[in-house]
Amino acid sequence: MRTVVLNPVGAQVSDLPLSEPSSRSAPDVSRLRLLLAEHGVLVLPGQEIDDPDFLAFLRCFGRLTFTAGETPVPGFPDLNVISNVGRTTPPRSVFHVDTSYVSNPPAYTALRAVTVPEQGGQTLFTNQYRAYDTLPADLRESLHGRTVRHVVTGLSPDAAGPETEAHHPVFPAHPISGRTTVYISTPERCVSVEGLDAERSRQVVAALYEHSTSQANVFRHTWSAGDVVIWDNRVVMHRADHEAVSGDRVMHRGMVTA
Q1: In the chain, what are the domains?
Q2: Average pLDDT over residues 7-32
Q3: What's the CA angle centered on 156, arms 155 and 161, to 5 degrees?
Q4: In degrees, to the nearest 5, what angle opens at C-alpha 87 toward C-alphas 158 and 82?
Q5: Are the C-beta atoms of 67 and 74 separated by less than 8 Å?
Q6: Separation of alpha carbons 163 and 161, rounded Å
């Protein structure tokens, strides 16, 4: 397993063929967990795998979970399809954390490149360790110990499933690395901060979000055929760049709870 650190977040891991069961051994998975906790995103290029291989890899990390309202992969209900095929307008994507409105959000999300467009379609990631470390000291101090209320967006309560909101610390310590992150999602989802009124909550969330997503804090991954990318939702936010995409873009996604 060879690792190259990316900037400002992430690492590329090569010489780990996920099609071989030996690559999913306990020592390798433990190493990947540590790398994810340290770097947030792992790019695994050149993978010749199918959905059963992808699922076997994901199950090494824990129990699979599925977000209500997503489109499942035919024959693989634990995976969902992300596709621009047949769309007349590009999908909408903003920086977010997957399914943060539940009490136990996915710890890990992974994408397998099925069809890579001729141009565009990058996925962007933020470094939430760096976001915390570079926050103004007064803002950091004022928010320590507080929680943010995350609510479901884009789905009716009936379609969202049993949980539609959850409170999470704004500055949690990562359970593996021990480092502190800024844990927020899109401002539409982060509706209040513990102890602050509605207007101040809005201002604080907007400031945290703008700070976290500044250009200097973002890594852009350009997809190639055979790429698998896995990330730690406790370390990064992510979004897809659907502007100026030329050609079909199809990904299969899987998520794992902690």
Answers
A1: 2-85+103-118+220-233+247-257 (3.60.130.10)
A2: 94
A3: 85
A4: 60
A5: no
A6: 6
